[in-house]
Design goal:
With about 325 residues, this protein is mostly beta strands. The protein has one domain: Jelly Rolls. It is built from 1 helix and 26 strands. The strands form 5 sheets. Strands 2, 14, 15, 16, 17, 19, 22 and 24 form an 8-stranded antiparallel sheet that branches.
């Protein structure tokens, strides 16, 4: 998914200097962003207070939207570099096309994982004939420096491992949780899991003390470590936890995101992740000139134009403001 913010401002984030080394309960509120013609998203990362959770650098939550009489998601071809995109749905379908020639419909609880490496472009759209509701999350994972030039590729996994406990079912999207390992390719120690809680469930989820974590509420009423979370909000949890208490007041859906704190500082602007403003400037020039990012075939519309770069130079800000 693209960052369609026409006032995109470059930021530097990452590095261990601002990682919270002990458990915390920091509730993050979203910023509302219009995505295409008919989809509004709630942006949780980057946030005014926090920019990364492990290697997770971008989190959008959207829906549930009634698109029965609407075109639904319509995101024209756009570029990416230096990151992986994770498409995750609770309702609806998204048709993915990319410059490698991939054409794949992603459905609920299926993993669509695109690794941009040096350069890729893609589009995302609701199929012409689509389900009534669209509800999901789009996430980016920053690639570490050693893998920034990896060959771009796309993966689609329909059979993902699960962890269960009374009242809880956890689908492992990326990385590992309680011994269950996702087939998705990762480049840093990381975890992403979809948690389904039954009404009245009260359980504890095993965690890695060296990871930092956050939980995004997708639906329902639940409490994470005693903190009520409403759909579209995210609770940052810091590090140092070996387990996470969960309670559901109704049937509820959550996304658990975590990983080892990302060592490197990164510059993220528009749909690019680099290490310097020069990286971003070159990527923008290459997209504008038609070089490097390839072409997406089959999308009925023009590709996105890159916004103007800001007139001011980058100022490193770390993981938090």
């Amino acid at each position: 998914m693209s960052n369609l913010d026409r006032q995109a401002s470059p930021t530097v984030c990452g590095g261990r200097g601002f990682v919270v080394a002990e458990p915390v309960r920091e509730l993050l509120s979203p910023r509302r962003v219009q995505l295409g013609e008919s989809t509004e998203v709630r942006r949780l990362l980057p946030n005014l207070g926090r920019r990364m959770v492990g290697a997770w650098a971008f989190v959008d939550h959207y829906g549930p939207d009634d698109i029965a009489d609407e075109p639904g998601m319509q995101v024209p071809p756009h570029p990416h570099m230096g990151l992986q995109t994770v498409s995750w749905l609770h309702d609806g379908e998204v048709l993915h096309r990319d410059s490698l020639g991939s054409l794949q419909t992603i459905r609920p609880r299926e993993l669509g994982l695109m690794t941009s490496g040096r350069a890729i472009s893609h589009s995302e759209e609701s199929p012409r004939v689509h389900a009534r509701f669209l509800h999901g999350a789009q996430l980016w994972v920053a690639l570490p420096g050693a893998h920034r030039e990896v060959q771009p590729h796309f993966q689609h996994h329909t059979d993902l491992p699960e962890v269960t406990a009374p009242g809880l079912s956890a689908t492992v999207i990326l990385g590992a949780l309680d011994g269950a390992v996702s087939p998705g390719t990762t480049y840093t120690p990381i975890v992403g899991a979809d948690l389904t809680l039954a009404r009245g469930a009260e359980t504890r989820l095993p965690l890695e003390p060296d990871f930092e974590y956050a939980v995004l509420s997708m639906s329902g009423e639940s409490a994470v470590d005693g903190v009520p979370v409403v759909p579209g909000s995210m609770l940052y949890l810091g590090c140092g936890r070996s387990e996470l208490p969960l309670r559901a007041e109704s049937d509820a859906g959550l996304l658990l995101l975590g990983g080892e704190p990302f060592e490197e500082e990164i510059v993220m602007w528009w749909n690019f992740i680099g290490r310097s403003q020069a990286d971003i400037e070159q990527a923008r020039e290459d997209w504008t000139s038609g070089a490097r990012f390839g072409e997406v075939h089959g999308y009925a519309g023009n590709r996105l134009s890159a916004p103007d770069l800001p007139p001011t130079p980058l100022k490193p800000r770390g993981r938090v403001r």
